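Lab notebook: predicted structure, single chain.

Context: the supervisor wants predicted structures on file for every construct in the current expression panel, including those that have not yet been purified. This is the next one on the list. No modifications to the sequence; it matches the entry in the shared construct table.
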Amino acid sequence: MYKHILIATDGSELAGKAVTAGLALAKVLNAKVTAIAAGEPFTGMAVGLPALRFPVAEYQRAVAEDARRILAEVSEAARKSGVLCETAQVNDFPAEAVVETARTRGCDLIVMGSHGRRGLSKLFLGSQAMRVLTSSTVPVLICK
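Prediction complete. Output recorded below exactly as produced.
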């Protein structure tokens, strides 16, 4: 069935559910895993005068350190489960990073979490999961 599962995580409790589900599925299917943490580029975070005053290097360093910590936790969980796991920190907008990494690494399933927002919160906050669902060429398993 699935041989290479991409698990997207941001280190949140909800993403942890996706990590747990993805690793359990990988174990049952004897599939390998690629776990990614996407750090949104600074250009997507601020514009105008605030962007000029914010220390970009500090932001990038903090994002990279956070991703290393998150991915180390996933690696350890995979090791304990007996699942082969590679990790990657991607500096791109999350949905694009997930879809592109799945494509370039030959993943045949994406596992990720979603808050399932509706109404105005969905309109203003958007949905990375929805973006992945609409642009992915491989199946997507959403965990809530």
